[in-house]
Amino acid sequence: MCTNGTGYGTENKIDWNERSRRNGVVFGFVSFAEGKLVALVEVIPSLNSPYPISKDQSTAFITCVYSSPDSRYDYRGELIESVLEECRKLGFSRVEVLSGEVSPFPNGTTSFFVENGFSNLGTVARSVVMLSGIDNIVLLARDL
Predict the structure, then answer these.
(1) pTM as predicted
(2) Which CATH code, of 3.30.70.141, 1.10.12.10, 3.40.50.300, 3.40.630.30, is assigned to 28-143?
(3) C-alpha–C-alpha distance, residues 53 and 32, integer Å
(4) Are 59 and 49 in contact, with CB atoms under 8 Å apart?
(5) Which of 11, 38, 66, 101 could bridge 136 with an S-S bond, Cβ 3.0-4.6 Å?
């Protein structure tokens, strides 16, 4: 699960992530270029999501999409395709993700996911204050 910084909330996320990994709940893909991590995508069943989203056995939920700001190439689209294929193999029929309407946090901008075949299901949180300013959080989905 994406974490940013330290403190109570971040430590709770790290603890949740460690428990989920031990239970085999979390999966994902990582891209390396020239020996350095340049991108990653992390996924869980929506039933295991700590977020207040609908829980469904056939839905996977992307918890983290990261792209290194130091990379010249954006590897996220390729990783999303790998995640979608893995989700199909695991029996999921839908993948959901939360994104910033214009902010890259969480997970990337809404336009990135729309460009990668996701449908915008609407705003789930309005006027969220983040480091990059005020933004809306959007739920997106892609049927497999």
Answers:
(1) 0.83
(2) 3.40.630.30
(3) 31
(4) no
(5) 101
